[in-house]
Amino acid sequence: MLKSLPRESTKNYLQTGKFSIVSYGKNSIIHFADERCHDLEIILSGKVIVERIDEAGNLLTVAEFYEDDIVGGNLIFSQNPYYPMTVTARLPTTILKVDKETLFKLFCQNPPLLRTYLEIVADHALILGDKIKHYVNKTIRESIISFLKYESKKQNSRHIELNITKKALAEKMGVQRTSLSRELAKMRNEGLISYDARSIKILKPDL
Amino acid sequence: MLKSLPRESTKNYLQTGKFSIVSYGKNSIIHFADERCHDLEIILSGKVIVERIDEAGNLLTVAEFYEDDIVGGNLIFSQNPYYPMTVTARLPTTILKVDKETLFKLFCQNPPLLRTYLEIVADHALILGDKIKHYVNKTIRESIISFLKYESKKQNSRHIELNITKKALAEKMGVQRTSLSRELAKMRNEGLISYDARSIKILKPDL
DNA sequence: TTTCGGGTGTTACCTCTGTAACACCTTTTT
DNA sequence: AAAAAGGTGTTACAGAGGTAACACCCGAAA
């Protein structure tokens, strides 16, 4: 995203206050749920996650964003621009805040920037759609199978490295860690998979 | 959306095939899940719903769109433009298909159109976010309370008119109709609500 | 080295909710 | 008016998964 912004005007806007740079510490909250969204935010460095936290404190991690990605893009031009979920810096994070009207002006002057923006926003909407498609109202076993098939394809191997903790995986699925653990054990007993703390191996390809 | 399209060029594009008009019968499928999205679609008349249908045939109605709304807007500029869910005409429906590149050209020439588009796409993304926020991985009772609070605010009354059937409500929540029915009965027995086939009344405002 | 925090694995218990089957009612079609 | 189609309410049953409690393991800090 950043690459598509014209360098010169970026400097300019930073001086006039249309753009600004803000830093957040590890695990600090960038936006609470229901907070109003004023600016588009471009991640300069760090890791940002979007999660739903319910009254009981249960977590559902909805999306993760890294350097050069944007936050609030699906929101900023809405008639009702309030963050529906909590936005947190998972690592120390620096972001560039871009004023909405300035952004719109830039779009009109700079079609490639608009194009990039439209792509990113569309891809983000798909993440939400996928979340609903793959994890919502499915059994834990179905969620696990969805996950394994996706990772197996991505890593091109039946032996899947878990690059996240099982705890984080449970949060991605929106289930209890113990329930995930229980279901994995069941699948192992049935001879479908084997696993340790860091990886899972698919024994029956068709699961 | 349609109002923002310049009349003259619309006629033109219809003749050159960049735009086209298609009709669908009641309950016919407009797009299957995983089908590629080629065009932006503007609903000229009718009712379109987006739903997830799992292998067992369970429904989760994700969104409903009516006249002048758009379908595929969150998708069309994605790098991976495949419909994540099924799109169905719930009533006889006529849509205007708009070619992607033609649309982009129009955006660059017509900022108000771009603005309208960005607003609609943002609002649609919020629908998905809300779906996750209010209905995903919650108990049926929590879903009911979310729904009642929202409708009570919207209708500005504790006596809520259900303008949809309970069957449709169950599909919106992604639960079985009988389970919804059972939970409503429980809440009635606890003195929280009263209801009939067409309306629900909140007896304890704090539920 | 010891200590401590956090992830992992396991299990008994119990609640929630999907399933299936039925009766009843309303609306639409014939 | 009769028949067909579809929504509504209810309940016994069974399975999935949340809760809580515990043991174990590993890596970082002291």
Alpha-carbon Rg of chain A, integer: 20 Å
Please count the beta strands of chain A (DSSP E, at least 2 residues each). Answer: 11
**What is the number of helical segments of chain A per DSSP (H or I, 4+ residues)?**
6
Mean pLDDT of chain A: 92
**Largest beta-sheet details of chain A:** 4 strands, antiparallel
Give the fraction of residues assigned to helices of chain A: 25-40%
Oligomer: homodimer
How far apart lie the N and C ends of chain A?
A: 39 Å
Which two chains touch over the largest interface?
A-B, 42 and 42 residues
Structure explained in plain terms:
Chain A is of the alpha+beta class and 207 residues long. Chain A has helices at residues 7-16, 100-109, 111-135, 140-155, 166-173, 177-189; strands at 19-24, 29-31, 39-45, 47-53, 59-66, 70-71, 86-89, 93-99, 159-161, 193-195, 199-202. In chain A, the strands form 3 sheets. The first copy, chain A, has a 4-stranded antiparallel beta sheet with strand order 1-8-3-6. In chain A, strands 2-7-4-5 form a 4-stranded antiparallel beta sheet. In chain A, a hairpin with a 3-residue loop joins strand 10 and strand 11. Chain A starts with 6 loop residues before the first helix and ends in a 5-residue tail after the last strand. The interface between A and B is large, with 42 and 42 residues. Chain B binds a DNA duplex (30 and 30 nucleotides) through residues 58, 139-141, 165-167, 175-179, 181-185, 197.
Attribute tags:
homodimer; 207 residues; alpha+beta; 4-stranded antiparallel beta sheet; 11 strands; DNA-binding
